[in-house]
Amino acid sequence: MKKKVLVIGGGYGGLRAIESLCKYKDIEITLIDKNPYHYLQTEAYGYIAGRFDIHDIAIDLTNWCQGFKGSVQFVHAKASAINFQDKNVTVDTMQLFYDYLIIAVGAKTNFFAFIEGLREHSYGVKNLQRAYGFRQEFENLIYNKLQNEQQSTQREINIAVGGAGLSGVEVAAEMAYVLQAYSKTIGDTAKEIHIYLIDASETILPGMGKYSISNTQKRLEQLGVKIYTGAFIDKVDAEYIYFKKGERLAYRFMIFTGGIKAAGLNVIIDNDKNGLNQLIITPELTIQNQSDVFAIGDCIEMKDREGNVLPPTAQMAEKSAEYVAKTIRNRIDGVASRPFEGNVSGVFIALGGKYAVGELFKYIKVKGYFAYVLKKYITHAYYLGLRLRINTGYKNRIK
Predict the structure, then answer these.
(1) Could you tell me which of 284, 292, 289 has the C-alpha nearest to residue 271?
(2) What is the pLDDT of residues 280-334, one digit of tens each?
(3) In the 3-class helix/strand/coil scheme, how is the chain assigned residue by residue?
(4) Helix 166-182 vs helix 210-222: angle between axes, to the nearest 10 degrees?
(5) Of 8, 202, 214, 224, whose CB is crowded by the most CB atoms within 10 A?
(6) Distance between alpha carbon 3 and the CA centroid of its chain, in Å?
């Protein structure tokens, strides 16, 4: 009899787990997601700035699952409960049973409650709908500048990016690059739009290597991005961002990338959690007292062998997914598994246009066009794999 594997969450981790498990004929896989699409969040910076279209960052999950020719089923529904004793997951009004469960629900933007007005007056990038809203705001701003339609006497317009980590830096750089490009077509009015990158840390890209930090800062300055570090936001209203030191910044709209917290399903799981609601998992990435329930990606707290917390990135989601897929295979075959050993192989930072900065394996450091080509190669290889699977699924559905 085939073993049933349920995967909750169609993000980077969930899809990689399915890709790793689908080759086994004795495993039956079901993917559950409340959204009908896979969101390529790592490409959100280009979408928000208007350089990418919706088809560049969203993949239809029904067609993708159909591409496995019957070995993977997709259930478009929200998982509302997990019964560990009876080994089933409730979706809508039915129960789906499992032999092994993979929780890959990801995370959402953490609009810090201690910053008054932040949630009401800013956008996030973890959610496609909110990224779409910010893109509309940005495009409307450009359009109004093109039409020379100013609703106020204030010609200078500020766009604020809260959080100078990887996502914030990439969004700020891409928007600044697009504004530079627009200056050739809509003239000096494009120069009246300013990008502010704000972070409470003393540096951009906190926790990353000196090479990435210094070269990213140089690129941002070349693009005209105004960098505010060591800046603690106290509150936000419809017109101003107020800082703890008493300063304020007038702004038109704001995107916030300064933190994450685990998605809602984690709340109902009886398991130790950290301050971000991420699950504290075992060395084999199982939740406590449930050896057949695994959790991967942003919804868990991952550490390396020294005990350092690993960043919640697509790379780590995929690595944890590959480990869990292999562990499930070992469990079925009665083979012991080693603990998960997470590590960051490297990072590439898109910095507007055909420019990037990257570090690989702590020794290889690249910047400029070559780094951009390497980043695009990695992204394209991932996207191509998804597209090939989707094309197969689409053809299967229209037969």
Answers:
(1) 289
(2) 999 999 999 999 999 999 999 998 888 888 888 999 999 999 999 999 999 999 9
(3) CCEEEEEECCCHHHHHHHHHHCCCCCEEEEEEECCCEEECHHHHHHHHCCCCCHHHHEEEHHHHHHCCCCCEEEEECCEEEEECCCCEEEECCEEEECCEEEECCCEEECCCCCCECCCCCCECCCCHHHHHHHHHHHHHHHHHHHCCCCCCCCCCEEEEEECCCHHHHHHHHHHHHHHHHHCCCCHHHHHHEEEEEEECCCCCCCCCCHHHHHHHHHHHHHCCCEEEECCCEEEECCCEEEECCCCEEECCEEEECCCEEECHHHHHCCCCECCCCCECCCCCCEECCEEEEEECHHHECCECCCCCECCCCHHHHHHHHHHHHHHHHHHHHCCCCCCCCCCCCEEEEECCCCCEEEEECCCEEEEEHHHHHHHHHHHHHHHHHHHHHHHHHHHHHHC
(4) 30
(5) 8
(6) 30
Q: Are 321 and 20 spatial neighbours (Cβ–Cβ below 8 Å)? A: yes
152: CB partners within 8 A, 6+ apart: none
The model's pTM: 0.92
- Alpha-carbon Rg for the chain, nearest whole angstrom, is 22
Task: Describe the strand order of the beta sheet including 233-236 as a list of residue ranges.
Answer: 233-236, 240-243, 248-250
Separation of alpha carbons 1 and 18, rounded Å: 19
By the 8 A CB rule, do 9 and 264 touch? no
What is the chain's mean pLDDT, rounded? 90
Q: How many residues does the chain have?
A: 399
| 235 vs 116: CA distance, rounded Å | 4
Dist. CA 248–CA 234, nearest whole Å = 10
Query: Cα separation of 91 and 86, whole Å?
Result: 15
Closest CA to 120 of 239, 298, 10: 239
Phi, psi (rounded to 5 degrees) for 302: -105, 140
Distance CA 385, CA 381 (A): 6
Nearest Cα neighbor of 89 from 9, 16, 192 is: 9
Structural domains of the chain, with CATH: 3-34+77-109+260-344 (3.50.50.60), 128-256 (3.50.50.60)
Beta-bridge mates of residue 83: 88
In the block, which residue shows the tokens 């910010």? 134
